[in-house]
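User: Can you help me understand a structure? I only have the sequence.
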Amino acid sequence: MLPPDIEASLVRMELIREGEAAVATRLTGGVSSDIWKVDAGGRTFCVKRAMAKLAVKDDWFAPVERNRYERLWYATADARVPGAAPKVLAHDDGAMLFAMEFLPPADHRLWKGELMAGRVDADFAREVGARLAAIHAATAGDAGVAAAFPTGALFEALRLDPYLRATGRRHPDLADKLNALADRTAATRHALVHGDVSPKNILIGPRGPVFLDAECAWYGDPAFDAAFCLNHLLLKSLHRPDRTGEFLAAFDALAGAWLAGAAWEAPDALEARAASLLPGLFLARVDGKSPVEYVTEEGQRERVRRVAVPLIRAAPARLAGIRDAWEKEMRA
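Assistant: Let's start by predicting it. Here is the structure, written out as tokens:
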């Protein structure tokens, strides 16, 4: 049953009529929002409302205004790269929620589920990289898009502090390096950034990848998006070490396609920023505020640290340097 305030908002948005029977199912899997599937009036849609306190072990609060910018990211991405995001149906910024189309799981499989099951498709990873680059390229240097996303403080609260700065607090010897990465990222403004490009937020749609959960949307450094997603392709091999070769091939495919589509700046500079960010994000997923749930053994965390720490201290200029270091570790 829908909470009364959400039901009232749907009435205001004219998605349901007052008193109309609606079947609501709460969806699970996220840590930052209430998400409902709603069946009413012969149609099905989703409703998303941001939570002030995220559902993680450490205290982690974030402004609910991020709901507005997630909705704007969907609308912008879908307009510039059709099919890249769910279509927004209506919104209520007063209640900090919006409604969007429901994408049936029968033909929109979750990429994370496929990867965790060991089904690693390098061709799909290539599509992810190409579509991500298309969004970045379509919004690069756009003053109107930049003005619509004044979300630097949100990005700091949701990404730079809980990932890079928090990891520096747990590794004081790396704090200067990690804070410098955070500061550089905060100051770099080239294109519209999703901020949470993770396999858990990517659907394998019939017309290509569909990106979900853009609560960290920001006009900033597109290198963050690529590094964030590539990080997951490395970490997944800890869950499925028998698929290490396939994960590395997916890493290469995604990185190559993204860099090939980088029309907005010199690829060498872009890759260097992504390559320096990646080790920090790698370490953050075991020692930051949001550790990945499938890395459960201390031995696995130590493997990440053995690779990440030297690469944070001496950042490589190429993504292949990180990939090769992780391959060596996994083959040891």
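Now, to help you interpret it: Residues 109-331 form a domain with the Aminoglycoside 3'-phosphotransferase; Chain: A, domain 2 fold (CATH 3.90.1200.10). The mean pLDDT is 92. Let me know which part you'd like to focus on.
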